[in-house]
């Protein structure tokens, strides 16, 4: 009832074209079809060996998705969170996830969680994964804080993130061993963070590793 009243007073709009839609967070079909374009990211060398299942991105790293991610992460805008959750849910409908045993988010350091209030990799993907009968397991932990990766070159990103992740405990190591793991995050830039997480998952015994992000400009 409350949602219906709010929708009457403040009609929901598509986050891309601002056209009217039925529900908060919903995208219109035209914008969704135009922007939601899953593609396989090119991986070379060690990245290709670690992510032998490949890494997919739902969209290009440009507006409106780029702005929605920033608004959700740094401004904590609820409409942006809902729009990204809707986007991920519709994106998963386009993928075949039958080969996945366990979904693992890229972790944040506990101090960052306290500051932000959430891990975006969990927030954006959790409900959609449930709709696909998959559960997110926070298998990895961030063992030390790092500088923000934004603005750093690949070599600097790689050095900055080296040794930053570990498997949470023996129980979580058991969850990974012999499993086909899907690593999820909001953005894939150079792949340095993904590579480090993937390395830890591989060392924990993952049989195959896939990757999935909302957005990427990597080519």
Automatic annotation (TrEMBL):
Q: Name one Pfam family in it.
A: Pribosyltran
Species classification: Bacteria, Bacillati, Bacillota, Negativicutes, Selenomonadales
Residues covered by the Double zinc ribbon domain: 5-51
What are the residue boundaries of the Phosphoribosyltransferase domain, all occurrences included?
171-209
Q: Which family does it belong to?
A: Belongs to the ComF/GntX family.
- Check the record and name the InterPro entries matching this protein: ComF/GntX_DNA_util-trans (IPR051910), DZR_2 (IPR044005), PRTase-like (IPR029057), PRTase_dom (IPR000836)
- Sorted alphabetically, which CDD domains does this protein's record hold? PRTases_typeI
Q: What is this protein called?
A: ComF family protein
- Taxonomically, the superkingdom here is Bacteria
């Amino acid at each position: 009832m409350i949602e219906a009243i709010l929708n009457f007073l403040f009609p929901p709009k598509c986050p891309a074209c601002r056209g009217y839609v039925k529900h908060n967070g919903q995208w219109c079909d035209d914008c969704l079809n135009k922007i939601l374009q899953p593609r396989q990211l090119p991986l070379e060398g060690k990245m290709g060996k670690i992510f032998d299942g490949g890494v997919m991105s739902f969209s290009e790293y440009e507006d409106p998705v780029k702005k929605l991610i920033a608004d959700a992460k740094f401004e904590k805008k609820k409409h942006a969170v809902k729009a990204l959750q809707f986007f991920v849910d519709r994106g998963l409908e386009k993928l075949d996830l039958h080969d996945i045993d366990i979904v693992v988010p890229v972790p944040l350091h506990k101090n960052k969680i306290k500051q932000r209030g959430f891990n975006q990799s969990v927030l954006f993907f959790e409900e959609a994964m449930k709709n696909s009968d998959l559960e997110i397991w926070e298998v990895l932990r961030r063992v030390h804080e790092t500088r923000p990766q934004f603005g750093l070159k690949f070599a600097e990103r790689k050095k900055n993130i080296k040794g930053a992740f570990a498997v949470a405990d023996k129980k979580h190591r058991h969850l990974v061993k012999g499993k086909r793991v899907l690593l999820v995050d909001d953005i894939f830039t150079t792949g340095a963070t993904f590579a480090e997480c993937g390395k830890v998952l591989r060392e924990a015994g993952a049989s195959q590793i896939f990757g999935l992000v909302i957005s990427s400009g990597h080519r």
